[in-house]
Design brief:
Layout lengths: L1 H28 L5 E11 L14 E5 L2 E3 L1 E6 L7 E8 L10 H9 L6 E8 L2 E9 L2 H7 L13 H11 L6 E8 L17 H12 L2 E7 L10 H18 L3 E2 L10 H12 L1 E8 L6 E4 L1 E4 L4 E4 L3 E4 L4
Parallel strand pairs: 5-6, 5-8, 8-9, 9-10
Antiparallel strand pairs: 1-11, 1-14, 2-3, 2-13, 4-11, 6-7, 12-15
Helix pairs in contact: 2-3, 4-5, 5-6
Length: 318
């Protein structure tokens, strides 16, 4: 009887241990409920001469549809968190009249904080010719800025060029920003013939930028060639640039279809955006596959609004 009782007790202990083991394995196999993701957010105050109020993570609301996601961190992009990579992209199909604006671009580069890494590239034939890799030597970056070639090339598309450089961009924990000077015409596809027609290159460029957490600022500058003289094509190209900037959390600058007298007001506004950025971290629900998930970032603090990308890249559940 005692032997039978001991065997029974051992079986019970073995079953319990097996159950714990299976439970542990099941937990390991179960997908993560949430994963932390990060986004760069610009804080804007409504009204002139108003200061940004002190905000903490409890003031920040991140929603995915009707679901509110938990915000775990809200950090100003200053001090130890001020790291930034800024790529200045100039369209080589731009008219050489752009030369009168290049000193404004150079001044903007020199105005960046010492920790900012700057790269310079020229867009043509669906790629980017990098004339200066990322460097914190801003004088070196300024030296690389030159006149555009004023040549449309055989397969010119600022959106395909942007996709090219985004995919070649080295991994970095720092903020990723692009200043793109172009007329926005997708010459690789014959321009934008219809405002209602598909714009696959713009869609893809926007998705890749949001996937990589890159904010795009666009400045309209007249190009050369037959398509630029088509009002419908040029106007639709401006709309495409505005959409690209809006969807990625940036801003688009233009003055009709004319070249502005100066880029200075545009670049001052871009600088204001860069100076008022924060990094928000929140918990998103992963799917079976990694994907872009639409989110909306708001606050109930009066007089404050946020600028951010439409979507964030969420890794797959583990």
């Amino acid at each position: 009887m005692q032997t039978s009782h001991a065997v029974h007790k051992m079986l019970l202990l073995f079953s319990a241990a097996l159950a714990v083991s299976f439970s542990s394995q099941a937990q390991d196999a179960a997908p993560a409920t949430t994963v932390p993701v990060h986004m760069t957010v610009t804080v804007n105050v409504i009204g002139e001469n108003k200061k940004i109020p002190d905000l903490d993570r409890r003031d920040i609301m991140v929603k995915q549809g009707k679901n509110r996601l938990q915000v775990t961190d809200w950090t100003p992009a200053t001090g130890d968190h001020a790291g930034m990579q800024l790529f200045v992209l100039i369209d080589d199909s731009s008219d050489t009249s752009l030369g009168s604006q290049l000193d404004d671009v150079r001044a903007f580069i020199n105005a960046q904080p010492p920790s900012a890494s700057i790269a310079i590239g020229y867009m043509s034939n669906a790629t980017v010719r990098v004339v200066q890799d990322f460097t914190t030597d801003h004088a070196l970056a300024v030296k690389a800025v030159r006149l555009p070639m004023a040549n449309t090339g055989a397969y010119g598309s600022p959106y395909l060029s942007l996709i090219d450089i985004l995919k070649r961009w080295p991994d970095s924990p720092n903020r990723r920003e692009v200043l793109m000077v172009t007329d926005g015409i997708d010459r690789a596809r014959g321009g934008f013939r219809s405002r209602l027609g598909p714009v696959p290159d713009v869609d893809t460029a926007s998705d890749v930028a949001q996937h990589t957490g890159t904010i795009i600022y666009t400045i309209y500058s007249p190009g050369v060639g037959r398509l630029f003289r088509n009002f419908w094509v040029a106007n639709n190209a401006q709309n495409a640039l505005a959409r690209l900037s809006e969807e990625t959390g940036g801003e688009s600058f233009f003055l009709g279809l004319q070249s502005p007298v100066s880029f200075k007001p545009y670049l001052e506004q871009a600088q204001k955006i860069l100076d008022n950025q924060y990094i928000v971290t929140f918990l998103a629900k992963p799917g079976k596959k990694a994907s872009l998930q639409e989110v909306k970032i708001t606050t109930e603090v009066q007089g404050v609004e946020f600028g951010a990308a439409n979507s964030v890249w969420v890794p797959a559940a583990k």
